Structures are given as C-alpha cells and as structure tokens.
Amino acid sequence: MIVESAAPVTLIGGGAGTAADVALAAALAPVCVAADGGAALALTAGVLPDAVIGDFDSLPDEIRAQIPDNRLHHITEQSSTDFDKALRSIAAPLVIAVGFTGERLDHQLAAFHVLAARSARPCIMLGATEVIFHCPAQVALPVVAGDVVSLFPMQKVSGRSIGLQWPIDGLEFHPMHLIGTSNRATGPVRLWMDGPGMLCIAPRRILAELVQALV
User: What's the whole-model pTM score?
Assistant: First the structure.
C-alpha cells in the first residue's frame, strides 16, 4: 500500500470536478490523494495531496514541481487506468472519488469497471448530480419517495430490495440481458445483494449519510 489511513480518503482525478466537489469530499474524507493529473484539481482547490499516484502521463511539469518528491508515486505499467492504480494502492475504510465522471466517456466507463473490479475497496464516485458505488452485501439508502435509484449490473447478480417501486426480488441481472435503470424509491431503500457486481446510482445529496452507511 502507498497510502494507509484509518480515516476515509478523498481521491481526486482529472475528469469533471470542481474545487467545491473537493471541499465537499474532503470534509468527509480528510486524507487527500490525487490520481496523476488530478493533482491539478487538488491544487486548484487549495489542497496539497498527501500522495500523487499514477503513470504521470497527464501530470504537467508545472503541477509536478509543486508536489514534494516524497509524495510522488510513479507506477509505470500501462495496462490499468490511473484510477485503478490509485484505488488499489489505498488502504482505508472508504474512498470518495472526485473528478472521475464527465469529460471523456471512455474514462467514465473505465472508472465504473474499476468500481466493480475493486469491489473489496469501498468507494463512492461523486458526480455532478449523483453518487455511484458498488453495492455491498447489504446497504440502506436514505432516499425519499420519488428519488431515482438505478442499478447497473457489471456481471450476473441478483438480490432483494425494500422501498423500490419495482422490487428486484427474484430477478437475475446481467449487463447483456437485464439492467435496473430508472427505478424509483417509495421511501428509504434497503438492498441485499447475493454477490458482487452491482453498481448503484443514487442522488448526490445522500453522500454524507451514504459514507456512514458504507463505513
């Protein structure tokens, strides 16, 4: 591990993210790490990252010069994304990922892949209006009636639900056959999953309570 923390960690990427996003995440996850070019957003937000992890192909020299050498962790292999390099190198109860949505669609899809592939490392991805996370064995969502709760399987997976307009009990989800976009809450939602592989997309305003639920 490059970063080991007893507190949640904010991981900052180079996608669509703002200084306000960084501040929101850092208030809940005070240790800050940047994935490669995400160091630029960190500095813009007034945060000197505790570590910068990546292959450094998107880290400008003028940004790199502002980071102490002992905080730069260069991983040279090119078979994984910087998000993957960083997430697998962090040992923490939870990671809030900022700056990994928007911008390039292929990068966003790759980030969703990492959420599922690294499901043993709890991570909430912060978007402009939503949060995205891999469903653990069970989770309670503090949503209200009418909120959109989408479920997107990354592999075959099934589960149970309480509080969804269209319950998922008895359904076998699969990315090529059955997905669960645009479901709606009838009140607080509870999910139980029979295995790994399900991503959940919920309103961004539940972030603070979701952090507590996943920790």
Answer: 0.95
